[in-house]
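Quick one, probably user error.
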């Protein structure tokens, strides 16, 4: 794989019609997980993402479906973490944005939306 086609890592939001992503090259793998993850946080990049979506400053970073992409240098595959509102078709589009070849997707409770979030906090 050429350097220019290297899979990227980073965070993203997807409102179902527009993807706002902050991809970048992977750095060193974490010694505990073996994965390359971005140091970017959704709350830090939200002002730029909200502007790209045309949203106001009053919207919260978790008001739009979001996730992150990690890279496994050992397995030579990427992982797209997402919530319950990200469809298979949108995962394919996210993979294109991050230039992913081999990839897998995993649902992560951090990225859940709607009633699924409420279920996490029910007593």
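Nope, works fine. Designed sequence:
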């Amino acid at each position: 794989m050429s350097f220019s086609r290297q899979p990227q890592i980073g965070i993203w939001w997807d409102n179902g019609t527009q993807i706002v992503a902050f991809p970048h090259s992977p750095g060193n793998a974490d010694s505990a997980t073996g994965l390359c993850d971005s140091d970017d946080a959704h709350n830090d990049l939200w002002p730029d993402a909200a502007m790209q979506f045309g949203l106001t400053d009053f919207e919260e970073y978790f008001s739009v479906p979001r996730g992150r992409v990690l890279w496994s240098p050992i397995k030579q595959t990427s992982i797209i973490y997402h919530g319950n509102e990200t469809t298979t078709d949108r995962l394919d589009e996210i993979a294109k944005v991050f230039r992913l070849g081999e990839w897998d997707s995993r649902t992560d409770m951090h990225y859940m939306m709607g009633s699924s979030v409420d279920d996490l906090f029910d007593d």
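The radius of gyration is 15 Å.
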